[in-house]
Amino acid sequence: MTVATKPLRAISELIEGEFVNRDRLAALEAVAARYAVAITPAMAGLIDPSDPHDPIARQFIPDMRELQSQPEESGDPIGDEVHSPVEGIVHRYPDRVLLKLVGACAVYCRFCFRREMVGPGRGGLSRAALAAALDYIRNTPQIWEVILTGGDPLVLSPRRLRDVTTRLAAIDHVKVIRVHTRIPIAAPGLVSPALVRALKSDKAAFVVLHANHPRELTGDARAAIARFIDAGIPMLSQSVLLRGVNDDVETLGALMRTLIECRIKPYYLHHADLAPGTAHMRTSIAAGQSLMRALHGRHSGLCQPAYVLDIPGGYGKSPIGPSYLSADCSMVEDFNGRRHAYPPRPGD
Ligand SMILES: *Cc1c(COP(=O)(O)O)cnc(C)c1O
Ligand code: SF4
User: Fold this and answer.
1) pTM over 0.70
2) Is the pLDDT of residue 225 over 80?
């Protein structure tokens, strides 16, 4: 499938943009030989080259530590492969499937959980494979929702997307078409009226935006988001909890508030997956829980995502707290951290 975006791919382009110190060139070439690298002008423009800890750079500029894998890390950290009945489909939960149309993204996140699978020209479904994937969905009546993911499905042309949504919408039991994407912030110019129309059908469409730092919601990104929402396509977000990017309550709170101000409901905060060479970007689960407590203590209920872990091995996502209720349901904690008794039901 064709990809309708031209990111800055080559390390030399990053150097020219002064995002990378020349001394680190050889090291970065070594990372780039192993994992895909790309940043779009929209994201590159957000980087402050004078800040060695810039949270945007940290997400997209290669780091030598990516070459050090830990024993617990895996090339397929959430077990997509064991649940793939046909090429392009991941069927883990009974009522919904992932449909991976394309392996390319506009940007390549250094912490990507599918980093062994994504890259320019990788993992795109051929015409025949797409037909077989659609046959699988058509022949599996319990599939209620289809999630277009990849890669990033919105790198496809509106014509290709329209073809897929039309064919999905023709399947009676498919009621919801969800798209997981980073395009509205990574390449907002791609969100054309034709692209928005390509997602509209008589089935419910949802767009879930991957956003990790409040600075990513630029004016152009907000305009792209508004094009979806004004067209009647609701938006949710997913963020990855990343060390040095959003693992402090000010940044995480600002991210959630900014999303709500853009009319996007925070959906998931993902604990970072055990993807190879990403240990330097992960936090502990305890740190994640304490951030969730801080969010709950400070911000509107609208600003609260569910903190989830995709269980290694392909067992699916589970909410990982924190919990405000004692194990026997007799004590509950309030937003200030004070504990209160809750009475048992008569007879229990
Ligand atoms: C994450 C995921 C989904 C979507 O899960 P929700 O909890 O519905 O957002 C569906 N299928 C697979 C295989 C997934 O990894
Ligand atoms: S946009 Fe998603 S699939 Fe693409 S590199 Fe980033 S995390 Fe991976």
Assistant:
1) yes
2) yes
